[in-house]
Amino acid sequence: MADPGVLRAAAASAAAGCTVAGVVAVTVAVVAGPGPGLTGYVSEAGVTDSGYAGAYRIGVFALAAALLLLAAALPPALRTAAALLVAGAAGTALSGAVTCSTGCPLPPFEAATVADLVHGGASIAATAAVVFAMLALVLAPAAGRALRRVAAVGAALALPLSGAVGLAMLLAGRGGLVGVLERLLLTVAAGWGLVTAAVLGLGQRRAIVTNGSPGREPGL
């Protein structure tokens, strides 16, 4: 039977790889696609008539896989954070499966279809779940110093950005402000996931090399 520590280290490495692949694919779709640049949502790269919709969806599904793998890489004591990451993965996958219409319209300033609401709601829920996973790690002593430190930095950046995105969507609607804030928030979330995967992977490998078994959890 495979050592749980080895499996968690492998999951962490795979999570890092999926994060990089997902970010690259989505970035290519956003930059090279026909979208309106910084004045639009990232999701506009995935509309049906975009030539880069396939790359966008591949990237989104890779990021959903990264969240699942990151949840699997966490020590068993961090069940709350793992459950939030699984919820984030589900929301991310749903947002990739359900395509919004051109412009990805959302209320209160635009008339939205059911698909727009499902896509937008899934994207918002997924991002919220990832931010709450950061907070869960900050508040969990079992996470260890390194994971808590990374989560604290991520949460300190993500929380004000999340609030700013929400207010901008309600008060200003689609435009340059929301576009820039959304991209900053997604960058923070992806960066946190990548660094967390690295901390988990290195910590598990160090424990295995030192003790010949998972031994102490990473970050201690």
UniProtKB/TrEMBL annotation:
Pfam families: DUF998 (PF06197)
InterPro entries: DUF998
Transmembrane regions: 12-34, 54-74, 81-98, 118-138, 150-172, 184-203
Highest taxon listed in the record's lineage: Bacteria
UniProt KW keywords: Membrane, Transmembrane, Transmembrane helix
Protein name per UniProt: DUF998 domain-containing protein
Species, as recorded: Micromonospora chaiyaphumensis
